[in-house]
Amino acid sequence: MSLNKYMHPKNRYKNAKPSFLQLALKYPDFRALTTQDESGKVFLDFKNADALRALTRCLLKEDFDLTVELPTDRLVPTLPLRLNYIHWIEDIVGTDGKKWGMDIGTGASCIYPLLASKMNQWSFLATETDAENIFHAKKNVENNNLSHLIYVKNGADESILTSSLQAFTETKVFDFCMCNPPFFADHMEAQGLVTTRSDDRPDAGSVSTASPQECIVAGGEVGFVRQMIEESTVLREKVRVYTSMLGKKSSLAQLKEELRHQKVAKFSTTEFCQGKTMRWGIAWTFDPTVTFPRSQFEARKTKPPILYVIPKGSGSVEYKVHDLARHLRNILESIKVHCYQGKQAKAYTSITLTATENTWCHQRRLRRQKQLKNSGPALESQLQAGKCSEGEDDKISNDTQQISTTEGGEPSKKNDKNGVTAKSSEEEEMSSAESSDSPVKNSSLKRSLNDPLDVKGIDSKRFCTEISKESNESKDSSEKPAPENEKEKELGSQNGINKSGEKPPKEYILKCVMRLKRSGENINLELEWLDGTSRELMHQVFTFLKNKLA
Fold it and tell me: What is the predominant subcellular site recorded for this chain (predicted)?
């Protein structure tokens, strides 16, 4: 399916596709590489490298007034993808005032500096290690009269950032750096002989035009960006925002882990969607004033919280918001769920829940095993004889399948015969568009609700980690419930300490916010997803709490 609806809103090709007919009428070189059917519709063979090259040259001239030479043995840049990357950087650093950027591995086309300088009058240091690419990049800059904004330099050195930045004297500080590193670690991976792509994923719709030096580097894209991260910890504020594009989704988890290892507190990722192709972006900074935008593709996953009206008389406590919250908090902390108090009001409270392991499933079975250990052979013989009921063991997971009050109060989706929650058609299409290189295998995320996740089997690399540190929030003593659009504020400090003196765990399988608020005569319980390995875990916690309140 097409991902164009998730293109950056400012991308000129999101709602206005190029007219091949108009281009063919205006540019003879392009017309020679097209075909036309009886109705007059013009077609282009995207598996023909010459046709791709002609299309890119025509679009650069037609839409940006750029004259660009593209060598036959070098990468042909696709414009929608490059524009998505540039617009993302615009969202981060802004477009007001003079900006300095660094393009690492600018290529023969020098495409990023040319586009960004033409659109925003940004200045660039463009580095390149290949002599032929340097020659063509300089020529393209000169042909478009942009030499006063773009400086093409030889970056042939073991360092990626450090040497080039230290030798450059036109500016002392850069607003950003950008990079489109070689995707592959060796020729076998580049030729698809070694791949993590799923067998049912369709082949690429266009031909690869990259030369070996443009698509292969020792360590692949992960090794390349990992070196960027290491150098950035030395350069720090020399570059305000460090960014890179990635060709494989599986690279994200490894690089986020490296950022945590290097104690980089603030980073973000995004998706670049165009046509049937998706790429990923990663950015990090040492500047606390930087804010990162959320991509439209990621925003589509946002779902309303799970809602439950707490029956009166629940929990054998007084039917008041803070009494019920205290009761639930004690229950959660008894099963080792970290609770951090967020914003409070007279009729409202929010608590951030963080769990490092699944301790809420099979509570009865755990108690019985403990009794068995303490009681010896007598109870064991009862178990073998079937005298102890197993009926309540799976109550949580069974109830999870039967939740009638689901996210946003809508009916839950039916399960298929294997117990796996059925996807909507849009979710199916999105999952087919996403890379199969996800660090968390689908099979582990889509387990049956009757077979809750065994977190002991989850590799620690797949745990989620705190992305940002947020300021402490003082408790609000007003009687008004907290506004729902202030979710970040109500979470309080990510370094907050609970009443037991424990800090929130940095590695976890589930993080969600629990809210209790009065609505008329009733008190509502909400659970809203923040992060973790699977939303199913939040549904299990919801059912666990619901059973405790019954």
Answer: cytoplasm
